[in-house]
Amino acid sequence: MPTEAEWKKTARGIDGRKYAWGDQWDPVLTNSRESGNAKLLPVGSIPEGASPYGLLDMMGNAAEWLADYFDFDYYKVAPNHNPQGPGIIMDHTIRGGSYWSPAYLVTTYMRDSSHSVHPYPRVGFRCAKSAN
């Protein structure tokens, strides 16, 4: 799974966009509550919502469980370059929102806890491999 820093970079690009596709909300470019689907769609169903690096489904569909553990206050003490997340805490960070998330949760900056002790069918994960 990607770290939170890797996920954020691939979703926001170098221009720090609010959504993977840009800065203007458009429910047609993601599978969120406003899209009206109310279910998971097959991966890659909305290619127009791709991130600047071409990654699909960064916003909506399934919220993404990340490698980093979740600490609400972590960014107050995190290093500025490629933070690796806090020490072991039960919950992992999730990003991107799901098909059930309202628009304000389907952004590149919203983050939440995985609530690891309770599985959620609206949360998935993305496989990632570090580049050499």
> CATH homologous superfamily?
paralog of FGE (formylglycine-generating enzyme)
Kindly name the structural category: mainly beta
Uncertain stretches of 5 or more adjacent residues: none
Q: Over all CA atoms, what is the radius of gyration?
A: 14 Å
Order of helices and strands: HEEEE
| Helicity range | under 10%
CATH architecture: Alpha-Beta Complex
What is the count of distinct domains?
A: 1
Strand content: 5-15%
Structure description:
The protein has 132 residues and is mainly beta. It has one domain: Alpha-Beta Complex (paralog of FGE (formylglycine-generating enzyme)), CATH 3.90.1580.10. It has one helix spanning 4-12, and strands spanning 63-69, 92-95, 111-113, 123-125. A four-stranded mixed β-sheet has the order 3-2-1-4, covered by helices on one side. The model has no long low-confidence stretch (mean pLDDT 86).
Topology:
Blueprint: H1 4-12, E1 63-69, E2 92-95, E3 111-113, E4 123-125
Parallel strand pairs: 1-4
Antiparallel strand pairs: 1-2, 2-3
Give structural attributes:
132 residues, 13% strand, paralog of FGE (formylglycine-generating enzyme), 4-stranded mixed beta sheet, mainly beta, single chain
What's the gist of this structure?
With 132 residues, this protein is mainly beta.
